[in-house]
Every structure is written in C-alpha cells, then in structure tokens.
C-alpha cells in the first residue's frame, strides 16, 4: 500500500509561517540586546572589583575579597518578576520595575571588609548608589544577613552610553554559607519549609553571626601582637 503524499502548505500558509518566524527572530534579537547591556554592566563591576582585589593582594597584608560571583537573570525569571511587580510586557517597563537583572556577589573574610568594599566602590566617580539595604545591621527575621546595594554604572556602547543598574550583595564567608544552605532547603521544600527546620536555620544564623564576631576579635588580637612595643 502506497503511503499518502504529505500535504503541502499553501502559498498563503508559507507566507504566514515565514512572517511568524521573522517576528519571533526579531523578538529574540531585541531581548538579547536588552540583556546584553546588563551583562556588560556586570563586566564593568567585576572589573572594578578585580582591580581592588589585585591591588590589595599586592600592596597590603590581606585581601578583603575572598571570591566574587555574578549572575544575569534568565528570560523566564525576568518576565516572572516583572509580572509579579505589575509591569507590562514591554522591555522599557521591565527595565524600570526590575533593578536586579544584573547581580554581583562579593564574599569577604570579615564584616569590616564588607563595609570597606562598599565604601571603596561607591566612592568611584562613575558609580551611583540607588539604594542600600543593610541586613547586617538589621538582619531579616529568619536571620539572613548581607549588605545589598543597587548601584548604577555607565555602559559604553558603540552608539550611546547607558546607565545600567546592578544589584551588589556583599557578605562574609559565614553569611554566604548560611544563605547557600537556606536557599537549598527552600528549593528542596518548594518554599514550604517545616517550622522546626526554620527554627534551626534561624539558630544557625545566630551561630554564624557569633562566628563572624569571634573571628574579628581573633584578628584584632593577632594584629595587636604584631604591633611593636611602645
């Protein structure tokens, strides 16, 4: 038995499909260009941090930067957050309502380093501070601690300069470890974490804060030993 011939699309259908494909490619291209400027903003900020890190490693007795991570929101995450904030689907509305599309996290050995890095970065003439949320001075109810800044940096493109926001998180190693564990637990339980486990997390946050305080005290004692007698 001969297999039936496949149906051929009619000329009008071909034109419709080609038009759809062209439109989708245009949307994809616009979205990529939109996200590209945030990727470049991450590059600008991480370059600034790398320069500070290298300077301190060469010129001083320790570096206030342990490691640096960055992330660019995926399109799905980007549109979900924009919808949650009531923004329409336009890229301009998304840019106005979502300021953490680009994110950089700096992890430091000591609490004093957190504020040191913040001061050194925000003193730079091309960095504009839009918002500061100090969850170290005032931790969240669950014990989360970190210094959050929304900063704006210029991105120099071929035909224009754009000021692009970047969310900057600065925290200690202990804070980062706690936050990583907390994120994994919330992911595993799909954000519905048992009450007992939440209490354990809050208690662990207190222990992490105590560890930061003790390590700061130990460093101060070691530095006092290094000072020559009067």
TrEMBL record:
User: A single Gene Ontology molecular function, please?
Assistant: kinase activity
Query: SUPFAM superfamilies this protein is in?
Result: Nucleotidyltransferase
Among the Pfam families in the record, one is: RelA_SpoT
Mention one GO biological process in which this protein takes part, according to its record: guanosine tetraphosphate metabolic process
Where in this chain does the record put each RelA/SpoT domain?
Answer: 70-193
Q: Which UniProt keywords apply?
A: Kinase, Transferase
InterPro entries found in the cross-reference section:
GTP_Pyrophosphokinase (IPR052366), NT_sf (IPR043519), RelA_SpoT (IPR007685)
This protein's record includes keyword DNA damage: no
Q: Which domain of life is it from?
A: Bacteria
Name assigned to this protein: GTP pyrophosphokinase family protein
């Amino acid at each position: 038995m001969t297999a039936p011939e496949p149906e051929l699309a009619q000329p009008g259908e071909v034109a419709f499909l080609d038009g759809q494909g062209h439109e989708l490619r245009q949307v994809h291209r616009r979205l990529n260009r939109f996200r590209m400027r945030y990727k470049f903003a991450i590059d600008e900020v991480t370059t600034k941090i790398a320069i500070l890190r290298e300077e301190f490693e060469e010129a001083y007795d320790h570096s206030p930067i342990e490691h640096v991570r960055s992330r660019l929101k995926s399109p799905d995450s980007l549109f979900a957050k924009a919808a949650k904030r009531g923004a329409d689907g336009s890229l301009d509305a998304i840019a106005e309502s979502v300021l953490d599309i680009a994110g950089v996290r700096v992890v430091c050995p000591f609490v004093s380093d957190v504020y040191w890095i913040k001061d050194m970065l925000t003193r730079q003439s091309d960095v504009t501070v839009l918002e500061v949320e100090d969850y170290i001075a005032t931790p969240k109810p669950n014990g989360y601690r970190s210094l959050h800044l929304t900063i704006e940096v210029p991105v120099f493109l071929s035909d224009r300069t754009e000021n692009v926001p970047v969310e900057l998180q600065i925290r200690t190693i202990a804070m980062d470890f706690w936050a990583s564990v907390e994120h994994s637990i919330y992911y595993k339980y799909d954000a519905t974490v048992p009450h007992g486990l939440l209490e354990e997390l809050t208690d662990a946050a207190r222990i992490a804060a105590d560890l930061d305080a003790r390590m700061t005290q130990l460093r101060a004692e070691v530095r006092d030993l290094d000072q020559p007698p009067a």
